[in-house]
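Hi there. Long-time user, first ticket. I'm pasting a complex I've been working with (about 228 residues overall). I'd like to know whether the download I got is complete or cut off, because the file seemed smaller than I expected. Thanks.
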Amino acid sequence: AQTVTQSQPEMSVQEAETVTLSCTYDTSENNYYLFWYKQPPSRQMILVIRQEAYKQQNATENRFSVNFQKAAKSFSLKISDSQLGDTAMYFCAFMRTNFGNEKLTFGTGTRLTIIP
Amino acid sequence: DTEVTQTPKHLVMGMTNKKSLKCEQHMGHRAMYWYKQKAKKPPELMFVYSYEKLSINESVPSRFSPECPNSSLLNLHLHALQPEDSALYLCASSQRLGTLLHFGNGTRLTVT
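Hi, the file is complete. Here it is re-exported in full:
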């Protein structure tokens, strides 16, 4: 079974600073997707960024970027120029792409607080 | 704005009640999902429908009964729930299995 580990239950950072959230995973698969989802108090799970395992280039979405280390099974999220609206719970997630096994497995989450 | 709409936003029910949660999407997605999320925990998969057929049931108790009457609609029928079933219930959809999930805002359920 796949596992996703987020070792930082809570983090806080000053507004405009950069913060990195860590995520490691365990799998024997070669083809899969990795995601970072954000869940603010509004409760909706919002996709922040995704990475396909076969792509070596790290994904980037505006202020959000990942450091994907496939051999080390590490997938960290970097938030640059942090904003108050970034305050939320962040979940790292893994999905296999094998037919019939496409479950989305979440890590335990990191609660991020941006301090004004 | 979410493209996956869940109703109601909040629901309080007694242990003898029967109620239903509703989820709707109009993105043409053919896979739909129910997740349960307890406070400060990650979402846990309950059911997956693919092309209106139940694809995955994660050993969920029979007091939860899913239904997918058409490709746009997913229901979760609730009967004889326990207080420990109180949680946020999230619906999601994707184009097909193995593609990006889009989540709704959830229904906050309280069982008294």
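A couple of notes from our side: The CA atoms of residues 12 and 46 of chain B lie 20 Å apart. The radius of gyration of chain B is 13 Å.
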